[in-house]
């Protein structure tokens, strides 16, 4: 599929990408190559201006969850109310919605913070609440647009593990945008490298590291070798020597 914005910017040129149900795929590429544009097209927020997007099974609105770099929580609402919002919008009765939101908060380690307001949480906790909100409808597809980019390194590593645990438990399909080679290799079953604008797929790299992943994967020689390979391909894609 291709996408030219109304101002004439050609953001994507014939992006050819297939994702299987239950896969964890990262989109890796330089700033401005069109990664967010791909997510917006998949989310149905825009239509491609060329080509098409096909689903093997029809998707409904509640089948897709979205997590952004900013946690986008409503500052005036308690965390439980923030997490319950997608269920309110879907017409789920409040009692059932509260139970499901509370359960989601427990799963991201925020069981004791239901009544807190967003301003009372750290950046990492806000991002956990955003993950809980995105997953509360049990989506089949989770779109993540650099969700951990603004977090410190230690929090980011922890959230990588938390996200993988959620993925292994709920088995949604994950499409994850990142600038980080290390993060993409740690999380993904497959990495799609997108070249500079107009974005197109320049390489697809399978990551044959076993799940569940953990510290032993991060410190292993295989992880280092795959990171090196992905980094070389990324540099080749953007025309830099490794
Ligand atoms: N609404 C818009 N109107 C016009 N051009 C846009 C719009 N949104 C994005 N673009 C342009 O499309 C291109 C791709 O943008 P996009 O945000 O998808 O890239 P990205 O790879 O996600 O970037 P980053 O990694 O910096 O977030 C950029 O050149 C950007 O300036």
UniProtKB/TrEMBL annotation:
Pfam family, one: ABC_tran
Single Gene Ontology MF annotation: ATP hydrolysis activity
Nucleotide-binding keyword on record: yes
Domain ABC transporter: 1-238
Keywords in alphabetical order: ATP-binding, Nucleotide-binding, Transport
ATP-binding among keywords: yes
Coiled coil: none
Family stated for the protein in its record: Belongs to the ABC transporter superfamily.
Official protein name in the record: Nitrate/sulfonate/bicarbonate ABC transporter ATP-binding protein
Organism the protein comes from: Niveispirillum cyanobacteriorum
């Amino acid at each position: 599929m291709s996408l030219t914005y109304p101002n004439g910017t050609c953001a994507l040129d014939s992006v050819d990408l297939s994702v299987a149900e239950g896969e964890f795929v990262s989109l890796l590429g330089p700033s401005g190559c069109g990664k967010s544009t791909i997510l917006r097209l998949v989310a149905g927020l825009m239509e491609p201006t060329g080509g098409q997007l096909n689903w093997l099974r029809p998707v409904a609105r509640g089948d897709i969850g979205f997590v952004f770099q900013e946690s986008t929580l409503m500052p005036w609402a308690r965390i439980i109310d923030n997490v319950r919002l997608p269920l309110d919008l879907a017409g789920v009765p409040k009692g059932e919605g509260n139970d499901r939101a509370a359960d989601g908060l427990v799963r991201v380690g925020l069981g004791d913070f239901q009544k807190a307001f967003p301003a009372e949480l750290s950046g990492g906790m806000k991002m956990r609440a955003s993950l809980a909100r995105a997953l509360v409808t049990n989506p089949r597809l989770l779109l993540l647009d650099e969700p951990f980019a603004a977090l410190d390194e230690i929090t980011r590593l922890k959230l990588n593990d938390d996200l993988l645990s959620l993925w292994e438990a709920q088995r949604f399909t994950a499409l994850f945008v990142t600038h980080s080679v290390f993060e993409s290799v740690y999380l993904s079953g497959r990495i799609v490298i997108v070249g500079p604008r107009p974005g197109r797929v320049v390489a697809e790299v399978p990551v044959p590291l076993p799940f569940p992943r953990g510290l032993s994967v991060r410190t292993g020689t295989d992880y280092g070798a795959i990171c090196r390979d992905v980094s070389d391909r990324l540099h080749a894609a953007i025309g830099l020597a490794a």
